[in-house]
Structure formats: C-alpha cells, structure tokens
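Hi team,

Below is the intake form for Transposase from Thermanaerosceptrum fracticalcis. Please confirm the fields before the structure is written into the shared record.

FORM ID: S-0412
PROTEIN: Transposase
ORGANISM: Thermanaerosceptrum fracticalcis
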Amino acid sequence: MRVTKNQYSHEFKKQILKECQETGNVALVARRHEIATTTIHTWLKNNDKEVR
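The structure came back. Fields below:
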C-alpha cells in the first residue's frame, strides 16, 4: 500500500497555526481539518525556527 504525501499551501498552514494559537488546542484543530497532529506540530516547530 502506498501512502501519498499531502502538500498544503503556505496560506493554509498560516491559517491552521493561527487557529491553534487562538484555541490553544492542536488536537481540536487537527480533527476539524482532518490533519495529523504530528503534521501541525512539525509546522509549529518549523515556524518557531523561522521566527528566530
């Protein structure tokens, strides 16, 4: 079985990260958009690196 990799736009990622900040709940946002929590945590980690 082959797993496909989803590619999300930069704007979509920004929207998701903003929702995570507003709600304070990554799991809730992940379920709402059907995205793995690990994906969002990776985006958060990468976003922190960009800010520094």
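SUMMARY LINE: The helical segments are 10-23, 26-33, 37-51.

Thanks, M.
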